[in-house]
Amino acid sequence: MAEWDEILDCEGLLCPLPVLRARKRLLALGPGTVLCVRATDAMALVDLPHFCGQAGHDYLGAQAEGDVTLHLIRRG
Q1: Longest Cα separation, the chain
Q2: Is residue 64 part of a domain?
Q3: CB 11 within 8 A of CB 68
Q4: Burial (CB count within 10 angstroms: exposed 0-12, middle 13-18, buried 19+), residue 46
Q5: Domains identified in the chain, total number
Q6: In whole angstroms, how large is the CA radius of gyration of the chain?
Q7: How far apart are the first and last CA of the chain?
Q8: What is the tens place of the pLDDT at every residue in 31-59?
Q9: CATH code, 53
Q10: 45 in helix, strand or coil?
Q11: Average pLDDT, rounded, for the chain
C-alpha cells in the first residue's frame, strides 16, 4: 500500500459523510497529494471510488485494518 501525505478520520460516519468530507479536504490539497481516508462504513468501498472517477481523482485502493478501512486517493 502506498504512503500518504494527509489523513482524514471518518470512523463512525455513515454515507455520504466520508465522501463529502474527503471532497472538502481534497479541494484544499495540491494536485498529486495522497489522502488517506479512514472509514468504517462499508459503503465507502463503493462510494469513494465512484466519487474519484467523477471528480478526476485517482483511487489508489483500500486496505483493512481491523474494523477500519484505509482508502487512498491521489488528488487529480
Answers
A1: 30
A2: yes
A3: yes
A4: exposed
A5: 1
A6: 11
A7: 19
A8: 999 999 999 999 999 999 999 999 999 99
A9: 3.30.110.40
A10: helix
A11: 96
- Spatial separation of the C-alpha atoms in residues 38 and 72, rounded to whole Å: 9
CB 75 within 8 A of CB 30: yes
What is the value of pTM for the model shown?
0.95
Residue 9 has pLDDT above 70, yes or no: yes
**34-39/6-10 β-pairing:** parallel
15 residue type, one letter: C
**Mind telling me the catalytic residues?**
15
Q: Residue 27 sits in which domain range? A: 6-74
Residue spans of alpha helices (H) in the chain: 17-27, 44-55
Residues 6+ apart with CB under 8 A from 62: 45, 48, 69, 70, 71, 72
Q: Is the dihedral of CA 39, 44, 48, 54 positive or negative?
A: negative
